[in-house]
Amino acid sequence: MKNKNKLILTIIALSLILTACSTPDENDSEDQTTLILGAYTTPREAYGEIIPLFQAYWLARTGETVVFEESYLGSGAQSRAVVEGFEADVVALSLEADVNRIQNTGLITHDWKANDTGGIVTTSIVAFAVREGNPLGIADWDDLTRADLEILTPNPNTSGGAMWNILALYGAALRGQVAGVPGDDPEAASNFLREVLSNVSVMDKAARDSILNFEMGIGDLAITYENEILVGRASGQTYERVIPSSTILIENPIAVVDASVDKHGTREVAEAFVAFLFTPEAQEIFAQHGLRIVNEDVAIASVGEYPAVDDLFTVAYFGGWANIMTEIFSESGVYNNAMLNLPGDAQ
Amino acid sequence: MTTKPRTLRAWALLFLVLLYVGFLILAPIGALLRGAFREGLSAVWESLSATPFLQSLWLSVWIALLVVLVQAVLGSITAWVLIRHDFIGKSLLNSLLDIPFAVSPVVVGYMLLLLFGRNGILSPLLERLEIQVAFAVPGMFLATLFVSLPFMVREMLPVVAQLDRSQEFAAATLGAGSWTRFWKVIFPHIKTALIYGMTLTFARALGEFGAVLVIGGGVQGRTETATLYIFRSLDERQNIDAYVGAVVLGCLSIGIVLLADALKRRSTK
Amino acid sequence: MDLTLSQGRRKSGFSTWFLRIPAFLYIGSMILIPVLVILQDGLREGLSGLIHQITLPIARYAIGLTLWTSALMTLINTIMGLATAYVLVRYDFPGKRILNAIIDLPLAIPSLVTGVMLVMLYGPQTALGAFLAEKLSLQIIFASPGIILALLFISFPFVVRTIQPVLQNLDFAQEQAAHTLGAGEWTTFRRVVLPALAPALLNGALLSFSRAIGEFGAVVVVAGNIPFKTQTAAVYVLGAVESDNRLGASAISIVLLAASTVTMLIAHRLQKSWSRSQ
């Protein structure tokens, strides 16, 4: 008995020593470097394909191996993680405001918008995912206020995609593009927002989580990135895309985080990676994964998959993200007011 | 004194309990196993041999082992001090012990973030020492250490309390030094509880999720434990990966706990 | 388990502090400091700031949901845990060893896995889930029944394992006496066994309640995150952390911490008074 226990203890001690000796993380050694990517949830499949391409490209060009560490969270959550200490070298987020947040803490010191596309690497639009065959005949925004309709949209507090959804909804109403809602009337638009929000049954924390819920059978309709719908369909889902007559252009920024790349010594490869994302090769892949893109040549080639929108507007309609954050998403903003005063709510 | 159930009521009770346990515990496990094997054995093998999964499992295991090592030493010392020493604040210490058991894991992660995050209280110190705790393995280690703390100490307390001190005194009068007294007289008696505590700690550490999610961030290849891998797989619609991972993690933990139970039974024979 | 912490009579010396310092540092740094940090952060804007965060409608609902689901679960768990322990201790039946082993399973299974399993069994895409939703209008996933089920799973061992040893060690003579006086099993149970078990029952109940209010991994998967419907306090804290509502996160964390601590303190106090009256 004594010997057996000694044996057990020896095994435990040995395994502990072994684990202490072999650390699981890769250290940057010669000819190898690590690049950390912090992104929002939606483009993970696209990056899954682009990253190997970039790795091959970089190896051929410099003989150096690039190992990627990726993290995919809701855009707001990811942005805050970086602020909180997550040392991402490159951030690919859903909206400019989330990159601005990082910039405001001094982690980004260069002007990341100073390129042809203003720092935007991909675009998409807000659309609806409906069940196969569109049994409820959803066609446009006004259908969303139907009684007994269960809508899915993520939580704007954590999800960038959710913010885009709210902006599309509110913007379309303000622009008079929603049947039954007079244009240029903030009061009426707010009411419309309120009515739609009261139909929301699940508010998950990121765009991807939201569409996954939809796939599990929750809800009749999901407001989401067109991109999510297409990626889902590519992986076998049978829901359909409905593009409303008026919607917002989702512009996804990308930026190198100066503080991180300087600390890790990865500036060259980080900037090369970002530049790579604008090449036709990478943009093709984005297009294949449901994203509308910014490279004009590729955009023209894939137009069949991405129909034009009757009334497409951008954040410029609201006067930019600064205005949006104060007027719509602040504690006293339009969104919060709507949430607190949902019609017919026994809270 | 056990008997076979005698009355109809007794049989009904037994049946009710079996039904309850079957429905509450066995049914979900069955559903998981079915889901994992739904697409056949080759899919299961693919999931098992996926590098990100193995990496995450490795990370989970070695954080757990490290936690076990630290708990074994410090937890035992704490139990010893609580029983054998007298000091002010003893009952405070005793009550503090149970806090990790009841605290929500998210709160744990958040507390660590407040301490070690970029805007955290200790961040100036960490910057100077160039150590990264938040969004890195040290933070996850601390979080796991926190949540598993009570298991070891609570396991050791009764055993230390029941030690026969006359043996120690005898050894002391015979001239045995502290270390000899500990190793030859005390240790054999606490050995079983120590090992049992270590296995409980290991199982708990392996399954930690909420705290490591908040403090670690789930960065693939860097701070992704097995639990976070499962969580991520669900997000990527890689359901088989998630289910297989869940089965592996579950089996590992169950195996450890069953081992502990067997050890306990053997020692009380 | 009578743990008198009063064996100590150690005089201070070097070797005493050799042991004490690590213990103090350990508990101090691991537990005391994080708790103090969160208290300090939650009270950053004073008590009024804290109360404001707690009384926000969404927070109030989350706390309320957490408390009532945990309480209901504790009730069910106590009854069924008692039944299970009774059956295990008093009856002989095929498969008894297996049942005993199954009891410990929830302790070993990671909470996240619990959530995944429940979704796999009752999710709307499953036959069972669809049946329950349509025929019985019972939604389990993304609704409170799911939360209660998850909590039941996780807390199951606590009541059973707390009662088992007590039941085992009960003085059988009393029960035998009752039998010879003509009492049936149920009466014996009610009059003799139950009162003797009461402290352990209460202890187990408090333990499982305390464990349940902080549960995260299983709930986040099973319940989703619907404010005012299935958002528990722990999930709310995660949302608050991720959306930079730091005061809200700290405030609700303090509430959770206070609730579990109070529950555990009551359990300790009861255990002490019970062992004193033995």
Secondary structure elements and their pairing?
The complex is a heterotrimer of chains A (347), B (269) and C (278).
Chain A: H1 2-21, E1 32-40, H2 44-62, E2 65-73, H3 75-84, E3 90-92, H4 96-104, E4 120-130, E5 151-152, H5 160-174, H6 186-197, E6 200-202, H7 207-215, E7 221-225, H8 226-234, E8 240-242, E9 246-256, H9 258-264, H10 267-276, H11 280-288, E10 292-293, H12 296-301, E11 311-313, H13 320-327, H14 334-340
Parallel strand pairs in A: 1-2, 1-3, 5-6, 5-7, 9-11
Antiparallel strand pairs in A: 3-9, 4-7, 4-8, 4-9, 4-10
Helix pairs in contact in A: 2-11, 3-4, 5-6, 6-14
Chain B: H1 8-36, H2 41-48, H3 51-84, H4 90-96, H5 99-102, H6 105-116, H7 123-129, H8 137-161, H9 165-173, H10 178-206, H11 210-216, H12 226-235, H13 239-267
Helix pairs in contact in B: 1-13, 2-13, 3-8, 3-10, 3-12, 6-8, 6-11, 8-10, 8-11, 9-10, 10-13, 12-13
Chain C: H1 14-42, H2 46-55, H3 57-90, H4 96-108, H5 111-122, H6 127-135, H7 144-169, H8 172-180, H9 185-213, H10 217-223, H11 233-242, H12 246-276
Helix pairs in contact in C: 1-12, 2-12, 3-7, 3-9, 3-11, 4-7, 5-7, 5-10, 7-9, 7-10, 8-9, 9-12, 11-12
Which labels suit this protein?
heterotrimer, A: 347 residues, alpha/beta, B: 269 residues, mainly alpha, 13 helices
